[in-house]
Amino acid sequence: MFVINGNNHILGRLGSQIAKNLLNGEEVHIINAEGIVLTGSPETVIEKYKQRRRIKHKGRPEKSPSWPKVPQLLVRRIIRGMLPWKTLRGRESFKRLKVYMGNPKNLESQKPLENAQFKGNSRFITIGELCRNLGAKN
After folding, report:
1. Confidence (pTM)
2. Largest interatomic CA distance in the chain
3. How far is it, in rounded angstroms, from Cα 128 to Cα 131?
4. Is 126 helix (H, G, I), strand (E, B) or coil?
5. Mind giving me the DSSP string for 47-89?
6. Domains of the chain: residue spans and CATH
7. H helices, E strands: number in the chain
């Protein structure tokens, strides 16, 4: 079992390493999902995810892709995009991913992933702030 503390990790770099571990058969738990960082202008990032949530199929809106507002589900959805979701291998590996807000099970995280650490030298927004702007209640 691989436990990662999401605070101050860049989402894309963290997600690609997690996807690789999942495909290798490991179980991955992410704690503190609301502290994961998205780099870029906050206004642009918020508008991008608002637009993704607005996309609906005209004839059958219930068949449209769904993008969640809650931090742990949004992180799961983004990592799902990094897996081969339409294959059995991808779906089985996605089941081994657990994402939590905070640390509900008092899991101890291993040392942070070096190349996914956020250095703080660019504009950014956290997943928690993004979800509050999308309409999440937390």
Report:
1. 0.92
2. 48
3. 5
4. strand
5. HHHHHHHH---SS-GGGS----SSHHHHHHHHHHTTS-TTSHH
6. 2-134 (3.90.1180.10)
7. 5, 5
Structure tokens at 102: 């905070």
| Backbone torsions φ then ψ of 121, nearest 5 degrees | -110, 20
Which of 38, 58, 62 has the alpha carbon at shortest distance from 128?
Answer: 38
In the chain, the amino acid numbered 57 is H
* AA letter at 23: L
**Structure-token match 């059995």, residue found:** 88
pLDDT in tens, 4-30: 999 999 999 999 999 999 999 999 999
Rounded to the nearest 5°, which phi and psi values hold at 29? -115, 130
Q: DSSP class of residue 21?
A: H
